[in-house]
Design a protein that fits this description.
single chain; about 375 residues; mainly alpha; 16 helices
């Protein structure tokens, strides 16, 4: 089972373009619709949980899916499979950057943004049909979408989904007895949280009292991974404040731009940062930075997953509004920033339309959509030059 989990997520890691919400859409298509590892309702609650705890949301959802299938080893296999392709590519890009080799990804990034429009739209519509079947849930989804779009604060998903979850917990009435379709063992939450805090204190101590570029890199990346909610683009301001300087602004922006063209989690921008970090061996820096930025989120997930998911299963009939909030979140991200930054002229509108046609009408695989839209982007780019 563990090798199967690894290879499944490795395949996704090679084709998951478009950022966190696109990844969540691909996970839903693969594990809800195709493989039936998890129901739509349970998947939505898993997404909600990963919005409520620090760390990269899409990677945490992937680890949680691996955990459901194979325990802790399954979570590690899912993480490695999903992260490895992007981490290797970002490490090589960092090496190319410090070696003076130019990397032009503008057209590729433009095409992948258009692919993200199609992939996220497919997931949003699928979840809407599955989880918003009553007038009340449809209204909550639309209202939460409006809140997410208008507030546009990094902590807005945490606050709105947290409020809906708290309302479910406080709703009068007895909790129905529900048995999870994949029971989870106890988490030892206190032990995991103590480990998170202990590692953070150790890295802080080393960075201040044994001040070397390596310890500064480790603490900066661990701190960013522990304080970000939602993952993806949200981590960038934290990263910039902790590593730039000593990483130059040009290097930081180059890493961010290249990350847009990579499959897998955007958190692997840390791999690029580790590779270009002054005074650190590129290979060691890339590996250390990758581990340090993902580690806090993985530990938070292991601390909360079994207890939280058991609670959610028991409260499932009362969590319909939490599910609706997740649907609203995905629609909100589709509107802003995905569509607003992807569709900026006639060419990008045509590329996004092509992706939507292939995904929603002809039900093509994400890999085929990526290949066709990217090819069309380079062809149209050549025509307009």
């Amino acid at each position: 089972m563990i090798p199967h989990i690894f290879w499944t997520f490795l395949t996704l890691g090679c084709t998951a373009f478009g950022g966190p919400m696109a990844h969540l859409a691909l996970f839903r298509r693969e594990f809800v619709t195709r493989r039936h590892w998890i129901s739509d309702a349970d998947y939505s609650q898993l997404v909600a949980l990963c919005q409520l705890i620090p760390g990269p949301a899409s990677s945490q959802v992937g680890m949680a899916l691996g955990y459901r299938q194979g325990g802790l080893a399954g979570a590690c296999a899912a993480f490695l499979g999903f992260t490895l392709p992007s981490a290797i590519l970002m490490g090589l890009a960092g090496w190319a950057w410090i070696s003076g080799l130019g990397v032009d990804t503008k057209t590729l990034v433009t095409a992948l943004k258009c692919v993200a429009v199609a992939v996220i739209a497919d997931a949003a519509l699928g979840l809407w049909r599955s989880l918003c079947q009553t007038p009340a849930t449809k209204l909550v989804a639309l209202l939460s979408m409006g809140c997410f779009v208008s507030l546009s604060h990094p902590l807005a998903p945490l606050g709105i989904i947290g409020f809906a979850f708290a309302a479910a917990l406080l709703t009068p009435g007895s909790s129905p007895s529900a048995v999870p379709d994949k029971p989870m063992a106890g988490s030892g939450m206190l032990g995991w949280l103590s480990l998170i805090g202990g590692l953070g204190m150790l890295l802080w101590f080393l960075s201040h009292w044994v001040a070397t570029p390596l310890t500064a890199l480790a603490w900066g990346l661990y701190q960013s991974g522990a304080l970000v909610f939602g993952g993806g683009h949200v981590v960038l301001p934290l990263l910039e404040s902790t590593v730039s300087p000593p990483v130059s602004a040009d290097s930081f922006l180059a890493g961010y731009g290249i990350a847009q063209a990579m499959p897998g989690p955007l958190f692997t921008v840390a791999t690029f940062i580790g590779a270009v970090y002054p005074g650190v061996d590129p290979v060691l820096g890339a590996i250390l930075a990758t581990l340090c930025i993902f580690l806090p989120g993985a530990l938070f997930l292991m601390a909360t997953l079994p207890t939280a998911m058991t609670t959610m299963q028991a409260l499932q009939p009362r969590l319909q509004f939490v599910n609706a909030c997740v649907v609203g979140l995905i629609f909100a991200v589709l509107i802003h920033p995905v569509s607003q930054t992807a569709v900026v002229d006639g060419i990008t509108a045509a590329l996004a339309g092509l992706g939507l046609l292939m995904t929603l009408v002809f039900r093509q695989s994400p890999l085929r959509v990526v290949l066709v839209v990217v090819s069309a982007a380079y062809g149209l780019g050549a025509i307009t030059v």
